[in-house]
User: Which sequence fits this backbone?
């Protein structure tokens, strides 16, 4: 568990943020760590070693933002928060609260709310356990309909997708019964859709901020071996 940030650092981050996570050195490091986490999760699945490198990259590019969102939402949900929050206490919705100047930009506030708070609503409405989350996380990587995949990848992904989906359904049937378990199963897949939508909303927020609140980004030296990760 990381140490809680001080009030001074909190306000410094908001000043750096200018509303944008990626502009600060801390934000850039956070994004890098989460992208490495996406790769680590994928590598932990048995199917990873069976896939060609090109197919691995296609899958990572397609799901990485949604996986980051899903993980951030689950952590925030476990912390009891109704907006995205880091374990050190920083939450990206802070610059858009009543205490700061961004509240005057209603379009920016609406975009930030969609990116940072709206995705939390289904998590609290549905409720999600660690076991359910783990299976959802595996399933999100196993979509055989991702554009650009080889025929071989589609075939084995289809098998694995069916396997993990049935595992989730059986787990929920055993836990809640047939009717309630089937309902929860559909709701779990809704969380996957929510994660992709949340990632798209974050992109919209980023584009809007870039256009209206341009600030020079703080550079972070990244090893050449890791630069490709930022393109995922």
Assistant:
């Amino acid at each position: 568990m990381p140490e809680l940030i001080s009030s001074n650092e909190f306000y410094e981050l908001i000043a750096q943020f200018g509303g944008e996570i990626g502009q600060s050195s801390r934000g850039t490091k956070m994004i890098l760590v989460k992208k490495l986490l996406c790769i680590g999760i994928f590598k932990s699945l048995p199917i990873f070693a069976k896939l060609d490198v090109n197919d691995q990259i296609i899958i990572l590019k397609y799901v990485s933002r949604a996986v980051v969102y899903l993980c951030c939402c689950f952590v925030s949900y476990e912390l009891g928060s109704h907006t995205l929050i880091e374990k050190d206490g920083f939450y990206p919705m802070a610059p858009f609260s009543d205490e700061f100047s961004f509240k005057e930009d209603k379009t920016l506030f609406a975009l930030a709310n969609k990116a940072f708070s709206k995705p939390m609503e289904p998590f609290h409405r549905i409720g999600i356990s660690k076991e359910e989350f783990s299976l959802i996380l595996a399933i999100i990587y196993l979509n055989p309909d991702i554009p650009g995949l080889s025929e071989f990848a589609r075939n084995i992904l289809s098998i694995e997708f069916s396997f993990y989906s049935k595992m989730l359904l059986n787990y929920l049937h055993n836990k809640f019964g047939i009717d309630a378990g089937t309902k929860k199963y559909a709701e779990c897949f809704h969380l996957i859709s929510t994660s992709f939508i949340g990632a798209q909303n974050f992109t919209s927020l980023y584009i809007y901020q870039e256009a209206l609140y341009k600030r020079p980004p703080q550079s972070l030296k990244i090893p050449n071996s890791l630069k490709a990760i930022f393109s995922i």
Observations:
- The chain has a mean pLDDT of 83.
- Residues 178-212 form the longest helix (35 residues).
- Residues 8-93+105-231 form a domain with the Retinoid X Receptor fold (CATH 1.10.565.10).
